[in-house]
Specification:
- The protein is α+β, with helices and mostly antiparallel strands.
- It is built from 15 helices and 38 strands.
- It folds into five domains: 92 residues, no CATH class; 179 residues, 3-Layer(aba) Sandwich (Rossmann fold), CATH 3.40.50.410; 97 residues, Sandwich (Immunoglobulin-like), CATH 2.60.40.10; 209 residues, Class I glutamine amidotransferase (GATase) domain (Rossmann fold, 3-Layer(aba) Sandwich); 63 residues.
- The strands form nine sheets. Strands 19-18-20-21-28-27-26-23-24 form a nine-stranded mixed beta sheet. A six-stranded mixed beta sheet has the order 7-6-3-8-9-35, sandwiched between helices. A six-stranded antiparallel beta sheet has the order 29-32-31-30-33-34.
- α2 packs antiparallel against α14.
- The chain is elongated.
Length: 723
């Protein structure tokens, strides 16, 4: 489609008639000369007439084209590439803007500020619309977030919504938002349609485009098929506002050894420092309760990640804040990694059983000769339903089956909410008494007496990497062996259950099953000498202590979490009665709600989106540490060649600055200017005309060139024989 920026110059195209008029006025005139014979003149005229006519026609054509090319060049011709049937500026258009709202959009380096650049580009696109045009606006997060879902002509609303946004704290899936943006223009009809993707250029956000099977699998799981493709009539533009060579250093994770921190005792903290882009030496500081406790130099060498160790100084009993802090870099939001650790004085453990059944287990948990890290409390099985189980780090059931229905419900609720329960069988319970339990790794089928010749059993760790056995050490030279007289025989394992310790080739010793947020452990022998020599084994004391410490480590909650729209914090607040409130790092109040889910009560809090320490409103105690997803810290940039080759983005126009993008938009909307092309054509035409005119002048026949006069007065044609 053609249009002209200065159409008034087209009137000058009438000048193209001048060469024709001049050629008509300059026709050859006949000169009459009396000669005795005209045969030689007629011969010369016949040979040159056809050549002269052709040369004159070509000269006229070149001169006409020269005038037309000059007129077109001054008229400003433009080639329209879209909007067939519309002139520039006359068509209506609908545009959809997708703004990357991931954490990597916080990147700032010198004059490069990614988020402001993207927002101002979106604002310029909206401000460049004409009355009658419409806009939709989407944020790309884990899911597409529509700010204006249907095309709207209210540009002031779009600008106010746009400028009210801030870069997020999570990841972004651009394909989901891109798809939503394209679908929002389905009802645009014959209007021109444009979609803009404004991002920093981080490759992670484009992973769904490169791996379409991910979205296909999600769609197939929902019972559909992924046959969607963007409308080919939609013009696609993207702005890669980030650095082409971004640099970033960030803490990846934080681990404490041991997981259970004892008051007054040091611990080890291991952290991993990641690098994106050129890896440079940096430093990392360990901050405890906002005070620097240690600092290490990090020299990445050739690796993209480097592990460093800190020594956590002895802490007082209570809750403490930790953070790994790096010097500021272009992406400052991930320079700090937060954690909340609880230093325990004594760990509350509840043991349910009759006194005669607790002789060995009670002394293993609390020897009494010295200060114990465990605060052990015992209770009769029939009084278990009166206990508030959430107050205890671990629950031991020693020959406590059968339980009352109310006690069984309380035990299962305790495990679902993050508790760890250990069941040792005994003579009080028959296999049928376990049928009502829904949390067991496997249902007991029988109590089997072991033949004397097959009583010796060697214990073997089948899952040595299980956190349950972290730090489990046996006395030197000891071999875990038991003399077994009686044991439980189990049926098939439940889903996700496993045997963690084996007893010979065909019998389990300790079964485990995750249940809700907690864990259920079942031993195949009793905790007294009636069924085996387990209480006399050197393996007994470290095993029960390790289980108790593991249970405490699970119940104290997580060191940190990642942002989520709805965060399950049951493991942190199941011991707090009544309504609670958290205070976010920004000072806003977040209520904790208790809801019933899957036959259990859970504590949830909404809008956990900012990184930092969340505190209990009542006493300002640090409760929850939130960190940005560390995948967002990998700023590996997207390669434009990979992007433009994707089928879903066919015809994509890519720019790295606002100015370049707006220029591409202008060329798309107005067209491709061709004035320079026509000037070059005019120059070429003038050269050809000059050459042809000079050649024509040189070859114009004169009478003296073709005729000679003999001394006798007779005329003779040049090169002809005399008559």
């Amino acid at each position: 489609m053609w249009t002209f920026l200065n159409s008034a110059f087209l009137w000058a195209s009438a000048a193209a008639l001048l060469p024709l008029m001049l050629h008509l006025l300059q026709r050859r005139r006949t000169v009459r000369v009396p000669f005795s014979t005209l045969r030689f003149l007629k011969l010369a005229e016949k040979k040159s007439t056809s050549r002269i006519r052709l040369e004159n026609f070509l000269l006229w054509l070149l001169r006409t084209l020269l005038v037309l090319f000059l007129v077109l060049a001054f008229a400003g011709p433009v080639m329209r590439v879209t909007g067939l049937g519309h002139w520039a500026g006359a068509s209506r258009r609908d545009i959809a803007i997708v703004l990357d709202d991931s954490a990597s959009m916080h990147y700032e380096s010198g004059f490069l500020k990614v988020w402001p650049a993207a927002v101002e580009t979106a604002a310029a696109l909206i401000q460049g619309l004409n009355p009658g045009d419409r806009v939709t606006l989407f944020l790309a997060r884990e899911n597409a977030v529509p700010l204006i879902e249907q095309p709207s002509g209210d540009f002031e609303l779009a600008l106010s919504l746009l400028r009210a946004q801030e870069p997020g704290s999570g990841g972004a899936h651009l394909k989901a938002a891109f798809r939503a943006a394209c679908n929002s223009l389905k009802e645009s009809g014959s209007r021109e349609k444009e979609v803009y993707l404004l991002t920093d250029g981080q490759a992670l956000s484009w992973s769904d485009f490169k791996n379409p099977e991910t979205e296909t699998n999600k769609t197939a799981a929902a019972g559909g098929s992924d046959t969607w493709k963007p409308d080919p009539q939609i013009a696609l533009f993207t702005l890669l506002a980030g650095s082409e060579n971004p640099e970033n250093a960030y803490p990846v994770a934080l681990d404490i050894d041991p997981l259970l921190v004892r008051a007054g005792q040091p611990a080890k903290i291991k952290t991993t420092i990641g690098f994106s882009g050129p890896a440079r030496a940096t430093s990392a500081a360990l901050m405890v309760d906002d005070r620097e406790a240690a600092r290490r130099t990090v020299n990445p060498g050739e690796g993209a990640r480097q592990e460093i160790l800190f020594t956590l100084p002895p802490l007082d009993a209570g809750r403490h804040t930790l953070r790994i802090e790096l010097p500021p870099d272009p992406l400052m939001v991930d320079d700090v990694f937060h954690a909340v650790v609880v230093a325990h004085d004594q760990l509350p453990v509840l043991v349910a059983g009759r006194p005669q059944d607790l002789f060995f287990l009670g002394r293993a948990l609390n020897p009494g000769a010295s200060y114990s890290s465990l605060d052990v409390r015992t209770v009769q099985p029939d009084a278990l339903d009166a206990e508030h189980l959430a107050d205890f780090a671990c629950l031991f059931l020693c020959n406590a089956v059968p339980l009352s229905g109310q006690a069984l419900v309380a035990v299962e609720q305790y495990i679902r909410n993050g508790g760890v329960a250990v069941l040792f069988p005994g003579d009080r319970g028959a296999p049928a008494d376990y049928d009502a339990w829904s949390c067991l790794p496997a249902k007991p089928r029988a109590i089997r007496d072991q033949p004397p010749q097959d009583s010796t059993r060697l214990l073997r760790l089948l899952r040595p990497a299980d956190p349950l056995f972290a730090g489990l050490h046996l006395p030197p030279g000891s071999t875990p062996a038991l003399a077994v007289q009686r044991r439980l025989e189990f049926g098939p394992l439940e889903k996700e259950a496993e045997t963690t310790i084996g007893m010979g080739d065909d019998a389990p010793f300790l079964l485990s099953r995750p249940f809700g947020r907690g864990r259920m452990l079942v031993c195949s022998v009793s905790a007294d000498r009636a069924w085996s020599t387990l209480p006399l084994s050197p393996f007994f004391l470290p095993l029960v202590h390790r289980i108790a410490l593991y249970g405490t480590g699970v119940s104290v909650g997580r060191l940190y979490v990642f942002p989520a729209p709805l965060q399950d914090v049951t493991d942190l607040f199941n011991a707090f009665p009544g309504d609670l409130n958290l205070v976010s790092p920004s000072g806003s109040m977040l209520p904790i709600r208790r809801i019933q889910d899957d036959k259990r009560e859970v504590c949830v809090v909404e809008n956990i989106v900012h990184s930092g320490i969340y505190r209990l409103a009542s006493d300002n105690a640090p409760i929850l540490a939130v960190n940005l997803p560390r995948a967002e810290s990998d700023l590996t940039p997207l390669q434009p060649a990979d992007l433009t080759s994707l089928p879903a983005l066919s015809g994509l126009s890519l720019a790295r600055s606002r100015e370049a993008l707006l220029l591409k938009v202008k060329e798309h909307r107005i067209g491709t200017p061709l004035a320079e092309v026509f000037l070059w054509l005019a120059l070429l035409t003038s050269i050809l005309e000059s050459l042809l005119a000079a050649r024509s002048v040189r070859r114009t026949a004169r009478l003296s060139d073709h005729m000679t006069v003999e001394p006798s007065g007779r005329l003779r044609g040049s090169g002809a024989e005399a008559p």
